[in-house]
Specification:
The structure holds two protein chains of two kinds. By secondary structure, chain A is an alpha/beta fold. Chain A is 45% helix and 16% strand. Chain A contains 15 helices and 13 strands. In chain A, strand 11, helix 10 and strand 12 form a beta-alpha-beta unit. The longest helix of chain A has 34 residues. In chain B, helix 2 packs parallel to helix 10 and helix 7 runs antiparallel to helix 9. The radius of gyration of chain B is 26 Å and the shape is globular. The N and C termini of chain B lie far apart (63 Å). Classes of the chains: A alpha/beta, B alpha+beta. At the A-B interface, helix 3, helix 4, helix 5, helix 14 and helix 15 of A face helix 16 and helix 19 of B. The structure holds flavin-adenine dinucleotide, guanosine-5'-triphosphate and magnesium ion (MG).
Chain lengths: 462, 638
């Protein structure tokens, strides 16, 4: 009990339990002895003095310690022994703005609730004997390892299909390994082992499948974290203007001098139900101070990790085409949407409005012309990138993605070795590592299984 | 000869510590002998109480020591001062290494033994040990005093006292032999079974289970048509097992290889129903890796024929062991079937094949030191723990003997972990999972296989052996020099470059021209010491001309990268091994744990979180829950 940070049984823990980004509703969960106390502290019933009844939705407002109404909320109270965690528990549902949930969380923490550690609700549920372990395992292993988001129903379904898929992959991998292991432990017996070429093919096939799964991570991440759009372009192209236009609020600085935005700004918007993470970056410009340079390096990194780069072109500049030819090849690899900004100026100057570069979306941030089409195009791009949730072939956890990449590396190493009988034991080593990597996703014991396979497949033993 | 080997119980021996012996070993098989020898090596007195003193470490079945996965155990026994390797080196009639077409991590020595010479060698060796008596008697009861072992009572009623007892009774507990429908109580063909001791264990509260194994008929070599069989010769230079064998030169006896015919399959298939296994007469499980011939035809119905190895039982005999033809079929079927094997058309049987059922104690009842959890001072080793094989038995016997001494010395038990030794892998497997069939070692059971090799058994275990007083200082010093020279050689191989264009057949493997270090060359598949010897010759005198040192260097170079890669895993493994779970932990009261997991934990009582995770049927989720509770428990305690 001496270590700090250790949860004490007296703690009441709190966390946002809905995914980040704009959603219709966001939820905050409190669990622990004083959950009800905390709720009462901030909750003002619409109808006066209704007692908090278990499992009844109460409607009212959340009023901060300073006396401001933060949001209209509904709240539900679950008594000890009858909640997910098994402890006294309260869930508060507010409107989905990120700012709102954050404020609510902040108020509760200020009042003494402790922010939950990752996986803590699930751990409490284990400890209080509240969830069937088969399920808990999935929850613990997959969800709790990364985030505390519980988009229950659809996700559990997802998990089922997903782990079945991994299991299948693993099974096939174990089959190849059994073949190799049989060649080692029963190499002196008269057994028909698959020839090296065949093993190589089997491994190639596995490589493709693991790769496919690992690649699905992008889609998985989009589900979890939202679609990441980075607005890039030369300095003064109007990036921040677009950012603000999309946000419909003056959140970022708009300034006629180039180089205004040095750091990057990140916000969330809801585009037809999709959570979009919008990022405004520093303009691309040669020279500048070190701060600017650092900003640009960062922009490069952001672009690399984005799902879509909206590249702003200032059409009012004469040399925009030359610039574009210079800029594009230097960008990190990622999907790009070209937007030609400031068309209002072209029209004003009566220049003929014609863009000769194919696929550039015309826009004026000043007049708002073209913004509708741009949004449509964004939605189209997002939809095209959304994974097929029902197939279950989506890796949503970064940890899993890393394990899959590890498996992939090991498989690639095993690939050439299986061809030589003298390095079978090394191939077995690589295969085993690949299996371990998958095992860290699913959790299994390998040896017995491999022997089982060998005995069912080969007639061995003198 | 029986009388000659047997020593009588010396009643007038000075009674130190008020016990007749420090340690009694019941059963003079492969486990029992290693146990007793370890005890006397560590300066304690021991008695082997065994049924027939003329059959010490007799090979019940196959006249051979070693083989894939098993030879590694033999080398470990050797590195820990055991006798098995020296005994086979002195009495083997053919030696070779298996898996030479694979990498050196899985090279495995195997030797054909002269069964009788082997047991004579062991008996003679035991008779020379000052603190060791071999007592011919049947152990009938384990005696206790204040919840600790106090000795044994023989079936005839004699009490022999001791401070610890190692039970190593092999296939003899409740032994029942089956030949077709015929059943005989016996521990081996022609030898009585031990039923009283089973009862004693049961009344002490031990759970006993049944397992089964089988052996082929033996053949008269003079009635075999050798011309129809393929010859298998021994390897030269002879690959001996022990690091301390003086070596000897002799003509190795060949083995032969033949196979069953289509007629064999017909006869066996027609008689499936007469096999005690298929008729339901035997309910216990036999080993999948050592199936009877009827099992093979039954389970692999599409395989037309099976290989049979014809192995001599010794030099002074014409008896032949047909490896691959174990059977529990009735006599007339055995005879008819074996005569359909190519070359055996006229063969005469000297002994019948049989299946045997016996009692074992599921090994969750012992801890990693092989001491039983129920009774302090009582140790189990060998077949009684559900294993099969001389090497498996020997390694356990050695560990049980060492731990029995440590127990009476009130010292910490000696436990090898999975990253150190096959012995560690085996015992850990035994104590963390239920036996569903007799347990045999395979290299694939060892997750750190590349690091657990024949060639480095001493590197892995000599430190322990010296500390425990199992080997003498000279052996250690000699080995120390060997290690230093290996290191020197590795450095040389690392810095010496050769031209790729000089590399004959394998030069096409390299894209680049120019030169390559010998070390890098040795990492190529199929390149070993033999392949680089001609290249070394060009550096006259720089390299060692000791083949063993070169081999050791080459193997280390080959695996270093892999072993480094595994280091992190081993570290992780060791860390979770170090997270101890108190033996008294009450699993039933733990919330959040599913019932099966509670039962498993209660049954196996893991010593560490790592071991908990290896218990079969336990999921990572179970371990996560356990770890949370454990942390809570430890926090409350501190
Ligand atoms: C028919 C048969 C077939 C087998 N086939 C194989 C095989 O194919 N492959 C394989 O690897 N292994 C096989 N084995 C197993 C192998 O023989 C054993 O695993 C190995 O010998 C076990 O060694 P141990 O020291 O535990 O016991 P054992 O070698 O069986 O020795 C036990 C000793 O204890 C003595 N003893 C028993 N009870 C008492 C008592 N109450 N009092 C005094 N002395 C007692 C016995 O006389 C014997 O000397 C077979 C065994 C048999 C019998
Ligand atoms: N006429 C016109 N002016 C625009 C339009 N969009 C942006 N501007 C102006 O262009 C200037 C730069 O706009 P910002 O949005 O700050 O440009 P930026 O790309 O973010 O610039 P940096 O952050 O400095 O790289 C401002 O003066 C804006 O008012 C447009 O569509 N039409
Ligand atoms: Mg800007």
């Amino acid at each position: 009990m001496c270590r700090k940070n250790r949860s004490s049984d007296d703690d009441t823990i709190v966390a946002i339990i809905t995914p980040p980004g704009e959603g219709g509703i966001a939820a905050v969960r409190l669990a622990g002895r004083h959950s009800r106390y905390y709720l009462k502290k901030f909750f003002v019933h619409t109808r006066e003095s209704v007692p908090l009844k278990p499992f009844v939705m109460h409607y009212g407002s959340f009023v901060s310690a300073a006396g401001e109404t933060i949001d209209e909320i509904t709240a539900v109270y679950m008594p000890k022994g009858k909640s997910y965690t098994g402890l006294e528990q309260v869930e508060v549902f507010c409107h989905g703005g990120r700012q709102i949930v954050r404020l609510i969380l902040q108020e509760l923490v200020n009042a003494g609730a402790r922010p939950a550690e990752p996986g803590e609700f699930t751990r409490l549920a284990f400890l209080n004997g509240n969830i069937d372990l088969a399920k808990a395992e999935a929850v613990a292993e997959i969800i709790a390892a990364d985030t505390e988001h519980s988009y229950q129903a659809s996700r559990e379904h997802l998990l089922g299909a997903y782990s079945r898929h991994i299991e299948q992959l693993r099974e096939d991998l174990v089959n190849v390994a059994a073949e190799v292991e049989a060649g080692i432990d029963f190499g002196e017996e008269e057994i028909e082992l698959a020839p090296g070429i065949k093993l190589k093919q089997m491994i190639d096939h596995l490589i493709d499948r693991v790769k496919e799964l690992a690649d699905s991570y992008r889609g998985g991440r989009i589900i979890r974290e939202g679609f990441k759009v980075v607005i890039g372009g030369r300095a003064n192209a109007g990036k921040s203007s677009l950012f603000n236009l999309l946000l419909r609020q003056e959140r970022a600085l708009v300034n006629p001098f180039p180089g205004t935005t040095r750091d990057y700004l990140s916000e969330w918007i809801d585009l037809e139900g999709f959570a979009v993470n919008l990022i405004d970056t520093a303009g691309l410009r040669t020279g500048g101070g070190t701060v600017e340079k650092a900003g640009r390096a960062h922009a490069h990194r952001l672009i690399r990790d984005s799902d879509l780069l909206v590249w702003m072109i200032d059409l009012s500049r004469k040399n925009y085409r030359v610039n574009l030819q210079k800029d594009l090849p230097a960008l990190p690899k990622c999907p790009i949407l070209l937007v030609g900004n400031k068309i209002d100026l072209l029209l004003k100057n009566r220049k003929q409005f014609k863009i000769n570069i194919e696929g550039v979306m015309p826009l004026s941030c000043t007049t708002g012309r073209g913004i509708g089409l741009l949004k449509k195009e964004l939605v189209r791009r997002i939809e095209a990138n959304m994974p097929d949730i029902t197939s279950g072939l989506v890796v949503t956890s970064l940890r899993h993605k890393q394990k899959l990449h590890m498996a992939l590396r090991n498989l690639k190493q095993a690939r050439t070795k299986v061809a030589y009988s003298e390095s079978l034991e090394l191939a077995a080593f690589d295969l085993r590592q690949a299996i371990s990597a998958l095992d860290e996703i699913t959790g299994r014991i390998y040896t017995e299984e491999v022997l089982g396979k060998i005995f069912s497949r080969f007639c061995v033993g003198k | 000869m029986m009388e000659q080997a047997a020593k009588t119980y010396k009643a007038n021996r000075p009674r130190l510590n008020l016990s007749d012996y420090d340690i009694i070993v019941v059963g003079g098989g492969h486990a029992g002998v290693e146990a007793a020898l370890a005890v006397v090596r560590m300066g304690r007195s021991a008695a082997i109480v065994t049924m027939d003193a003329g059959k010490l470490a007799l090979m019940s079945c196959n006249p051979a020591i070693g083989g894939i996965g098993k030879s590694q155990l033999v080398k470990e026994i050797d590195a820990l001062g055991g006798l098995m390797a020296q005994a086979i080196d002195a009495t083997g009639i053919q030696f070779r290494r298996l898996n030479l077409s694979r990498g050196p991590a899985v090279w495995s020595t195997r030797a054909q033994a002269d069964r009788i010479a082997y047991t004579d060698y062991i008996a003679e060796f035991c008779s020379r040990q000052k603190n060791l008596d071999v007592i011919e008697a049947l152990g009938g009861e384990i005696l206790t005093e204040n919840d600790r072992v106090a000795g044994i009572r023989t079936e005839k009623g004699k009490i022999i006292s001791s401070r610890a007892v190692v039970v190593a009774t092999g296939t003899f507990l409740g032994g029942l032999i089956h030949i077709g429908a015929k059943k005989t109580k016996a521990g081996r063909m022609g030898e009585p079974a031990a039923y009283k001791l089973s009862d004693s264990l049961r009344s002490l509260g031990f759970e006993l289970g049944r397992l089964k194994t089988g052996t082929p008929p033996r053949l008269n070599g003079e009635t075999i048509d050798w011309s129809r069989c393929e010859v298998q010769l021994g390897e030269v230079p002879i690959p001996f097992f022990s690091h301390s064998s003086p070596g000897r030169e002799f003509d190795q006896t060949p083995c032969h290889l033949t196979c069953t015919s289509s007629r064999t399959k017909e006869i066996i298939s027609e008689n499936f129903h007469r096999s005690p296994i298929f008729s339901g007469q035997i309910k216990s499980t036999g080993p999948r890796y050592c199936p009877s011939i009827e099992d093979k035809f039954y389970r692999f119905a599409d395989k037309p024929r099976h290989q049979i190895f014809l192995e001599p039982e010794g030099n002074g005999t014409n008896e032949i062991y047909p490896n691959g033809f174990a059977t529990g079929l009735p006599e007339e079927v055995q005879k008819a079937a074996i005569r359909t094997v190519i070359g055996l058309e006229e063969v005469e049987l000297t002994k019948l094949g049989y299946a045997i059922e016996y009692d074992y104690c599921p090994a969750y009842q012992v801890g990693p030191s092989l001491e039983t959890r129920r009774l302090r001072g009582l140790f189990f080793a060998g077949q009684i723990n559900g294993t099969s094989g001389y090497e498996e038995a020997g390694a356990q016997g050695l560990m049980a003997g060492i731990n029995a001494v440590l127990y009476i010395n009130k010292e910490e038990p000696f436990v090898l972990d999975r990253s150190e030794a096959y012995t560690g892998v085996m015992i850990d497997d035994l104590v963390t999972r239920s036996t569903t069939e007799p347990y045999r070692m395979f290299t694939s059971r060892a997750e750190y296989r590349l690091a657990l090799r024949e060639d480095n058994a001493r590197d892995r275990l000599f430190g322990h052996a010296v500390r425990l007083g199992l080997i003498n200082k000279e052996s250690f010093d000699r080995f120390y020099r060997l290690q230093a020279e290996t290191q020197k050689e590795i450095a040389l191989l690392d810095e010496t470059r050769v031209r790729i264009s000089d590399l004959q057949e394998i030069k096409h493997r390299f894209k680049k021209r120019g030169t390559i270090t010998l070390a890098d060359l040795l990492k190529q598949p199929g390149i070993g010491v033999r392949e680089i010897l001609p290249l070394l010759a060009a550096h006259n005198g720089r390299f060692s001309n000791d083949r063993e040192i070169l081999e050791r260097a080459a193997i280390r170079i080959r695996y270093q990268g892999y072993i480094d890669k595994q280091e992190r895993e081993i570290e992780k493994f060791r860390k979770s091994e170090a997270e101890s779970v108190p033996d008294s932990f009450d699993y039933r009261s733990l919330t959040g744990l599913k019932r099966e997991a509670k039962e498993k934990f209660t049954r196996f009582r893991p010593r560490s979180l790592g071991q908990a995770g290896r218990i079969e049927g336990v999921t990572p989720g179970d371990v996560a829950v356990l770890s949370v509770h454990l942390r809570k428990y430890k926090a409350l305690r501190s």
